[in-house]
């Protein structure tokens, strides 16, 4: 694909002519004129053909001149580059740079932006942009600017001074067709896997009308789980240390008539989301799982003891 550079507003604009699909770059001629046979009213309706033909002509001429350009000369085989001098005990080795080396330039200084302009029957479009009607004076000004090599950076979405290769596509026998919509963005966000405990901040910050991810049941817990049980100070009491699965230690003060189920309720109320994952509670020594939720503290023999929570 050949290109022809022109200077405009301090930036190099290149027009590139696309082939006809068979590897041939065609120069506009009388038989290739897309506006041949149209009346003046139809030409005015179709836009400024002179500007369009001129842009295609420059692009095609660029293809021809680029194809005839001589290839780069072979590089010299003479050694070039920097080096170090031989040192000694008295004189240190020093580096001598290459006197012919070119000064390094910023990486993006020569970065060429590639843009495509498509000429349709009813207007033209730049890249995937909307249709720009030929009869709009503002759009005619854009074509004139491109033809003269002075297209503003805002039109081509480039920075000032950036070189641009403008590829021209001729589809003047077709009406404008907008590009297909981009595919929908895949799901992004966060959630909880089934059976995983809900984050404490999420559980505590959710309102009564909010929904939860499948597998979490913080909003569907019965009221007895979300509230502390009452302790009757007129009856014998005891303190049980509860060690949670995450290492947290809690102290539960309860009556001897409270049950193993009350201990589980205490854990669920103290750590939101705990009820959404299966766990067991048991003693430390001897190691015994407390399976009967109706068994009292006194009957279970855990008065003043340590109860450990373990994930299943």
TrEMBL record:
Residues 112-177 form the SEP domain. Residues 62-71, 195-215 have a biased composition (Low complexity). The keyword Metal-binding does not apply. Pfam families: SEP, UBX. It comes from the Eukaryota. GO terms for molecular function: ubiquitin binding. Keywords: Ubl conjugation pathway. Residues 233-310 form the UBX domain. The keyword Iron does not apply. Residues 62-110, 170-220 are annotated as: Disordered. GO terms for biological process: autophagosome assembly; Golgi organization; membrane fusion; nuclear membrane reassembly; proteasome-mediated ubiquitin-dependent protein catabolic process. This is UBX domain-containing protein 1.
């Amino acid at each position: 694909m050949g290109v022809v550079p022109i200077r405009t507003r301090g930036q190099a604009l290149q027009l590139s002519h696309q082939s006809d699909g068979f590897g041939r770059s065609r120069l506009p001629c009388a038989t290739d004129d897309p506006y041949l046979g149209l009346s003046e009213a139809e030409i005015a309706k179709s836009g400024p053909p002179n500007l369009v033909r001129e842009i295609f002509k420059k692009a095609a001429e660029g293809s021809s001149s680029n194809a005839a350009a001589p290839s780069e000369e072979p590089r010299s085989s003479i050694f070039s580059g920097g080096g170090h001098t031989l040192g000694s005990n008295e004189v240190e080795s020093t580096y001598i740079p290459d006197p012919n080396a070119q000064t390094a330039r910023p990486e993006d200084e020569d970065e060429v932006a590639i843009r495509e302009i498509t000429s349709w029957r009813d207007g033209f479009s730049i890249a995937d942009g909307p249709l720009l009607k030929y009869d709009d004076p503002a759009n005619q000004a854009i074509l004139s600017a491109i033809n003269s090599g002075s297209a503003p950076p805002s039109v081509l979405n480039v920075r000032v001074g950036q070189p641009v290769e403008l590829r021209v596509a001729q589809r003047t026998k077709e009406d404008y067709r907008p590009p297909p919509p981009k595919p929908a963005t895949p799901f992004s966000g966060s959630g909880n896997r089934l059976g995983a405990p809900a984050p404490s901040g999420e559980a505590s910050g959710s309102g009564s009308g909010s929904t939860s991810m499948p597998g979490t049941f913080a909003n569907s817990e019965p009221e007895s789980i979300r509230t502390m049980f009452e302790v009757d100070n007129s009856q014998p009491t005891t303190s049980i240390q509860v060690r949670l699965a995450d290492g947290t230690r809690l102290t539960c003060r309860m009556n001897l008539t409270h049950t193993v189920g009350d201990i589980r309720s205490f854990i669920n109320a103290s750590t939101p989301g705990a009820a959404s994952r299966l766990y067991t509670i048991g003693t430390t020594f001897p190691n015994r799982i407390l399976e009967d939720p109706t068994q009292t503290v006194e009957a279970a023999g855990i008065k003043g003891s340590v109860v450990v929570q373990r994930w299943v």
